[in-house]
Amino acid sequence: MHADTVQNFKSRALAALRHELRDYVVISLYLYLYFVALILYKDSVLKEYGIGYAPWGLAVVKALVLGKFILLGESMRLGHRSRGKPLIWFVLRKVAAFVAFLFVLSYLEEVTLSLLHHHSLHDALAILSAETWQRIAAMSLLGCLALTPFFGLQEMARAMGTQNFRRMMFERRS
Predict the structure, then answer these.
(1) 9: which of 35, 50, 85, 163 lies 20 to 30 Å off by Cα?
(2) Are 77 and 126 within 8 A, CB to CB?
């Protein structure tokens, strides 16, 4: 009996790990494509002024870090308090909660990196406080625009059932 329990635990743990890894890859790939689009746009604008800009590695790193932050927020059930509300309100509240969460974690990440590069805490915070309200508003709005379709489709799949959603999305319609 004990061996069956251990084997059952191992198989459930492996299935959970596979599910978590699949979610991480999907989220990170989605975010990577989002960051690539932003980098392409920024590069095209800066080229008009003779400035080269194309940090492709940054897109990968940001996508992986924010992907993990999103999984962390999901595990904390962030934005799930309004689960019984109409789907649109649930998704919008979840997006708002995640944008705020990612905003805070991104700033903590920047402070940590600044400290790792031997800047003082005062200097690290000064760099971050120099952000303009327009840049903060733009990044928050872009975050909302990126996460709304992602969470919207995710919640539609949950509401419809994964198999029905996949069938609707990927099978030929008559």
Answers:
(1) 163
(2) no
> CB-based contacts of 110: which residues, under 8 Å, 6+ apart?
124, 127, 128
- Give pLDDT, residue 132: 65
Instruction: List CB contacts of 45: < 8 A, sequence separation 6 or more.
Output: none
The DSSP-derived string for 106-130 is HHHHHHHHHHHTT--HHHHHHHHHT
CA distance 95 to 79: 8
Helix (H/G/I), strand (E/B), else coil: 53: coil
Q: Which residue, 138, 129, 73, is CA-closest to 101?
A: 73
Which pair of structure tokens corresponds to residue 153? 């489709």
Element (H, E) at 83: none
Q: For position 136, what pLDDT does the model report?
A: 77
Helix (H, G, I), strand (E, B) or coil at 33: helix
Residues belonging to the chain:
174
Distances (CA, A) of 65 to 100, 102, 132, 169: 16, 10, 24, 28
Compute CA distances 86 → 35, 135, 149, 158, whole Å. 30, 32, 16, 13
Q: What is the pLDDT of residues 40-83, one digit of tens each?
A: 888 888 888 888 877 878 889 989 988 998 999 999 988 877 77
pLDDT at residue number 30: 95
**Model confidence pTM above 0.90:** no
d(C-alpha 148, C-alpha 133), whole Å: 22
